[in-house]
Each structure stands twice: as C-alpha cells, then as structure tokens.
Design brief:
CBS-domain; Dihydrodipicolinate Reductase, domain 2; 3 domains; nine-stranded mixed beta sheet; elongated
Length: 511
C-alpha cells in the first residue's frame, strides 16, 4: 500500500485496484512518508488534463495527516470521522512509516449491523452502474461513471452512504463497462455492507438486469442510476409508496423554466393573437430514482435489453385493473308475492312495464355506478318459459364500459325457484364474489393465493327508508340527489339498447 513518487498514474491506478483501497501512501526509498494519493486525486488530475503516463509527483497530497504513536481505538474512530480519511500512517520522528491504520478495519461489520433497522431488512437498493458514461468522456474512458468524483468521494460511495444513513444495508450493483475496476473498488466494502455485484453478460440497458432480482429475498427495491444523488428523506418516499399502494413510484423533481423573451401567440392557422411576456413553465423531471415492488419484476421475460422508461410504459399498459364484472338477479315470479295471483301482478304485464329487464334493472344500476357509462351492448331478452305472462322472463346482456374497457355480463330472470342475487368482479389482483341473499362477500387475493370470506350485517329493507329520507331531503332542498337524472336516463338507454339488440341480432353502440 506504499508507492514511490516517480511512478506514473496508470501504475498507481493498478495498485489501488489490486488492493481495493481508496488511498495509498507515497514514500521515498527509505520508507519516509511524503504524502498520500487517493483515487479522488487521480480523477481530479485526469479532469485537469493529466496523462496516464504522467508521474504522480504533481498530483499527490504532500500534506498528509499522520500520528507519531498509535492512539486508543476510541480516539482513532473520532479522527477518522472528523478528518474523513481512509487511512492513518503511524510514523517515527524521522517520518518513517511504522504502521498503517485503515478506516475499513476500524469500522467493521459489527458496527454497521447496529445501524441496520429491522423494519428495512426487506428493502434492497439496486444501483445501475453498467453504462459507458458516453456524455462524460474522456473521463469515463479511464474510470467508469460511478467512480467519478464529487468532492473527495465517488458518486457511488455517496449514494451508498445515504442509504446506509436510512439504515438499508442490502445492495445490488449491476455492472458491465469496466466491471473489474468496480469490483476492485467494492473490495473495501467486503466487511461493512451486504452487497452483490451483478455482471451483465451483454448490455441490458437501465432495466434489463432487474430480471436477475426475481428471486431476491427483498420485497421492495430502491432503484437508482449511478450518477444520482438525492437529498431527500427516504422514509417519506417509502411511506408515500406504501400509503398510495403503488407498485412503482417515480421520484421526480419540480423545475421551473422562465423564458427571458416575449412569446408570440398564434392560432391553429398561425395567425398572430398577441404576446405572453416572459412566461414561466413548471415541469416534473425524472430524477432516475424509483421504488418498485418485487412482484412487478415478473413482467420481465428473460434477460433482455430494456431501458427503465420503456419498462415503466409497459407496466402502465399492463397496470392492474378490473377486467370483467358479472351481476345476476333471479327469482321465481309465482313465489314473489305468494299471497296474490302472479298473473294479475304488474310484473307479469308488458303493458304495465313489467318483466325481468325493467323490474330487476338494479343490477345494471350498480354496475353503472361502479364502472361508469356503457358504450356497446349485445343483448337477448324475451319470454322463454311457460309462465302465463306477457312480459319478458329472461334477459342476458354483455356490456362494454367506456372507462378502462371493463366487460360486464348481466343475467336477469323470473325463473329461479331459489332466489339468487350475486355479483362477481374479476381483476388482475384477484376476484370479489358477493351474495346478497346470504349477505356474504368472498375475496380471492391473487398475490397470497388465498380466499377470504366476510359476512355483512345489512337489512335490505333499509333501502326503502333511505329512499324516503332522500325524497324528503330533496323537497326541503337539503342535499343533492343520490341518483341524477343523467344516470337514470343512461340506465334507460342501456335497457332499450338490449331490446334493440334482441330485435336486430346486432351489437348496439350508445353514443
């Protein structure tokens, strides 16, 4: 870990990489301390225009910190933290080096473990460090982008320290370009952090290597570009992620851009309409830091090149949603009012507005409430039994809702001997099934692969009380109607479209 001052920069880089250290000592032939040379000193020299063949004589630190005698361990720790250095040479009165104390040997893994928060053990940090850093050439022709300096530290060291302060100690470093240099750099972390270097066999972009993490132990990952330093409270970020039940959170930065000129305003035909003097525009910029749940990584098929922006757009297209909803209401008309002749009941008469479609259209109402307006309908409705009625006793329809293209299926009948009133909603996260007759809801969680059943204590006669209270409140102008005239009109549009579809045998579009 000691070099002579006449070696060139390239040789110094080789020695630093060999030992995985950030700093080496510069001595003369008699082992007298002359100074220290850090990887930061080398990077700064390259930025200033030094050549790799140049001697280190003009770039090393000739005023190093040193001790004449070995201090107590407690004091040495304080010195390291105060000076922010990687090593301390112990010298005699003639400045001959007797011993070298390294930061990594003092702050071992046991002290790091004390700083690891139990509740963050299921969190990981992925630092994407495989790019060539073309925009930062010629500097990145010597060092990979994550090892470029910010002050006296490398970018990737600053990123790691911020997450360690947040008490996360599980790191994955994805690499490709100059893998060996990055590997050598991480030797210094061998006892202080939990990390895994992932070497890409081919260029995988900024998201392709995430496929290697499908079987990782952690459930949630911070994903960071290797040149991003975010001065933000990571606890607030993770709380936001969970509070909003996100699968992926993009950390964005708000920036304002003020145009220093008057902007000409024109219409669609390029005719002049006036000026907007020095307008200010606000934008949200992607910082390159994300929070993702591990379960979305299953959307990565194979180990293929994929950039993060394209991955996010693919996820947006495949986002979890409701796919299908079914509602059913069926009962046997002669049993509905057993105290009277069903043939004289209005539901048996077409001329009185009876029938399965109109009288049990509440199922259409609540699907409409849940999923919005219907755009397309295919329906079948009519009398198919030998009941002595003139109204319809069966209605089957398929609805396509405008919002999110949810498909609905509505079954209405006056034929079932045992009353049935159920619904089923199928989504990408699971299934919800409900039975109004038994007041139960059954939920299937696709992630946990389990069913959960819940009983609901509700008296459906309360619906009529609610209607009465709503009616009197409207008369007294105390509140808005629960159901608007527009919603009621759209329900009738759906009903009449089912009848039209029955007559034409075609799909009907509601404009």
């Amino acid at each position: 870990m000691k070099v002579l001052k006449n070696i060139n920069i390239k040789k110094a880089i080789t020695i630093l990489n060999k030992y995985g250290s950030k700093t080496i000592l510069v001595v003369d032939k008699n082992n007298k301390l002359l100074g220290t040379l850090s990887d930061g000193d080398i990077r700064k020299s390259i930025i200033k225009g030094f050549n790799l063949k140049n001697s280190i004589e003009k770039i090393y630190n000739d005023k190093p910190f040193f001790l004449y005698k070995k201090e107590e361990l407690r004091n040495i720790r304080k010195i390291f933290l105060k000076k922010k250095i990687d090593l301390i040479p112990i010298v005699n009165k003639q400045l001959k080096v007797l011993e070298i104390i390294f930061f990594k040997d003092i702050f071992d893994n046991q002290e790091r473990e004390k700083k690891v928060d139990e509740k963050y053990k299921n969190y990981g940090v992925v630092i994407m460090a495989g790019g060539k850093g073309i925009r930062m050439q010629p500097y990145t022709k010597v060092f990979p982008k994550p090892l470029l300096p910010i002050g006296n530290e490398t970018v990737i060291d600053i990123i790691i320290s911020k997450f360690l302060n947040f008490k996360i100690n599980n790191f994955y470093i994805t690499t490709n370009y100059k893998y060996k240099i990055i590997k050598d750099h991480f030797k210094k972390y061998s006892k202080s952090i939990n990390f895994k270097l992932i070497k890409e066999k081919k260029k995988l972009g900024t998201a392709g290597s995430l496929a290697y993490l499908k079987n990782a132990n952690e459930d949630v990952f911070f994903i960071s570009n290797c040149d991003v330093v975010i001065n933000e409270d990571y606890k607030k970020i993770i709380n936001f992620h969970h509070k909003n039940k996100n699968d992926l959170t993009i950390i964005a930065s708000k920036k304002s851009l003020k145009i220093p000129y008057g902007v000409c305003l024109t219409d669609k035909k390029k005719n002049f309409n006036g000026f907007n003097e020095k307008p200010k525009y606000d934008f949200l910029f992607n910082t390159g830091l994300y929070v993702v749940n591990k379960n979305i990584l299953k959307n990565l098929v194979g180990i293929n090149k994929l950039d993060m922006d394209n991955f996010i757009l693919k996820l947006k297209k495949r986002k979890k949603k409701i796919i299908f909803a079914r509602a059913e209401c069926g009962f046997y008309l002669p049993n509905w009012h057993p105290w009277e002749d069903y043939r004289k009941f209005y539901m048996a008469s077409k001329s009185q507005g009876g029938g399965a479609l109109l009288d049990t259209s509440h199922e259409i109402n609540y699907l409409q409430r849940l999923f919005g307006k219907v755009s397309k309908i295919q329906g079948l409705v009519g009398k198919f039994s030998d009941l002595d009625i003139t109204s319809d006793d069966l209605s089957l329809s398929i609805l396509k809702f405008k919002k999110n293209n949810v498909i609905g299926n509505v079954h209405l009948d006056l034929l079932q001997f045992e009353k049935s009133r159920t619904f089923k909603i199928i989504g990408t996260k699971g299934v919800i099934e409900g039975c109004f007759s038994k007041n139960t809801i059954k939920i299937y969680d696709n992630l946990k692969k389990k069913y959960f059943t819940k009983n609901i204590k509700y008296n459906f006669n309360n619906i009529y009380y609610t209607q009465l209270r709503q009616f009197w409140a409207l008369i007294k102008n105390k509140k808005n109607n629960l159901c608007t005239a527009k919603e009621a009109y759209h329900t009738m549009q759906i009903i009449e479209s089912i009848r039209k579809s029955q007559l034409s045998g075609k799909k009907i579009t509601i404009k």
